[in-house]
Amino acid sequence: MFKIRTSKYRHVFCDPPKAEACHTGFRLSTVTGDQQYIKASAKYFAVALFGGGGQVYVGRHDRPGRFTPASTPTLHGHAGAILDFEWNPFDDHMLATASEDTTIKIWNIPEDWEPIDETGSSKPGEDITTSLVDLTGHAKRVNLLRFHPTANNVLASTSSDHTVKIWDIENAVDLTTFSDMQDLCQDIVWDFKGDNYAASCKDKTVRFVDARTATETSRIAEAHDGVKGVKVVYLGESGKVLTTGHSRQSGREVKIWDLNKLDKPLCVEKIDTAAGVLMPMYDVDTNVIYLCGKGDGNIRTCEFENKKPYFHRLNDGFRSTTALKGVCMVPKRGLDVMACESARLLKVTNEAGVQPLSFVVPRKSDAFQPDIFPETASNVPAHSAEEWMEGSSKAPETMDLNPALAGSKQNGGIKKRFTTVSTLSQDLKRAEDRIKYLEGKLDEAGISYDKE
Asked: What value does the mean pLDDT take over residues 150-162?
């Protein structure tokens, strides 16, 4: 008997973004590598700018507009070009950057950061030039960064020295180093709890590594036959992993693997014959996969199901003639859930700047829809770096997306306050101003005091 498969996300759609909702005016650094070229927290997004000095533009989601070179404030401080960056999942204001100068820097974005005003025009302000922490240890340029999904202030980095390092950024030390990559790392992802990570390599091998001991536990010897980059994503707690790459005939394909049996894939899905690297954006809450190809105009929507045939295509997704250079997904905490926005991707283009693509599930009701918005990862860490290294294994802390139930979980945990020369100078200035004010009050009251 013929049966139509039902899915709550079958009719998800995305309308072309309006020009006034886009972020434009910058010349982006998107020449080399397989990086995403854009990353987002729930409040900000970051893109690397073309030119010397390793400049990064940090924009606010709610302040679209036009970037003005040499006028709009930026972040810079590396001696070489910035190759990748990553937002701390537990602090929307903390950004990590990786550079050709072999270092990693941790930055804090001020609460009042607003490079673009409400009218969409550039707003004068001071650049961010002082980092909170500098991490040194790689011998060659640092290519990729990934924050730990559950442990606070733990960061993974890959380098052209063919190593993967795990860092405790609070203490500025590397916890472990994996040195058996053999070739350049093309992608690195944490599993659901952050006990292990998977790293794809230019030698076509995907290695699965115990993050605490830096030992390889298993591998896919040849994930894809083609020579193009391979991307990896863990499919939640299903025990499955998805890879994208090219076949021997240069056709793009998606494979799903069982982590307990990696000798052959469970599913192989042919996509097309385009040349660009296929980047999968996976929504672990809804099991929807957004396939974004470099150089493509279209974004395909698919759905994972933990049983045969595993991979289901949804509707047409998003169609456009504007080529995609890079893409990232905005955390669920930053979405407009009352408009049934199930996902938002930020698309980097050459001519149209950064375009926000809002994927919406059509619903008639204006009320919150709990069936399409299950609890999602919050900005509260499940454990500290020390607890994680000692063996603590926990799923991400979750929160309810219903605005009516917004509670303390959404405010995040206790955050480490990193001290720099800049922050100390600001604290000293506030203290001096306060002392001057209090001395004035004492003078007005005729009370004597020691002025030395």
From this structure: 96
The token pair that represents 30 in the structure block:
């998107």
Nearest to 338 by CA among 300, 314, 367: 367
- Residues in CB range of 300: below 8 A, 6 or more apart: 271, 290, 291, 313, 317
Amino acid letter, residue 413: G
**Which of the 8 DSSP states describes residue 27?**
-
Residue with the larger pLDDT of the pair 164 and 406:
164
Residue 99, class by beta-carbon neighbours within 10 Å (0-12 exposed, 13-18 middle, 19+ buried)? buried
Token digits of residue 54 = 């390793």
What is the separation of C-alpha 407 from the centre of its chain, rounded to a whole number of angstroms? 24
What is the C-alpha to C-alpha distance for residues 206 and 200, in angstroms, rounded to an integer? 4
Query: What are the helix (H) ranges across 328-420?
Result: 385-389
In 3-state terms, what secondary structure has residue 440?
helix
Contacts 24+ apart (CB under 8 A), 302-308: 302/254, 303/7, 303/9, 304/235, 304/238, 304/240, 304/242, 304/256, 306/235, 306/238, 306/240, 308/266, 308/267
Tokens 């115990």 -> residue? 210
CA atoms of 113 and 60, how far apart (whole Å): 8
C-alpha to C-alpha distances, 210 to 154, 164, 197, nearest whole angstrom: 15, 12, 7
74 φ, ψ to 5°? Answer: -135, 175
pLDDT digits (tens, 9 = 90+) for 229-272: 999 999 999 999 999 999 999 899 999 999 999 999 999 999 99
Q: CA dist 50 to 41, 327, 328, 397, Å?
A: 22, 17, 19, 37
| Residues 262-301: tens digit of each pLDDT | 999 999 999 999 988 999 999 999 999 999 999 998 999 9
Is-contact 34 277, C-beta < 8 A?
A: yes
Confidence of residue 447 (pLDDT cuts 50, 70, 90): confident
Distance of alpha carbon 99 from alpha carbon 79, whole angstroms: 8
Cα separations in angstroms, 49 against 29, 55, 68, 98: 5, 5, 12, 14
pLDDT digits (tens, 9 = 90+) for 49-65: 987 778 999 999 999 99
Amino acid 418: pLDDT: 64
| pLDDT of the residue at 433 | 81
What are 346's strand-pairing partners?
A: 328, 356
| Strand ranges inside 206-325, DSSP E | 206-210, 215-220, 231-234, 240-246, 252-258, 267-272, 278-283, 288-293, 299-304, 311-313
**pTM: predicted TM-score of the whole model, two decimal places:** 0.89
For residue 219, what are the contacts with CB-CB under 8 A and spacing of at least 6?
205, 206, 207, 208, 262
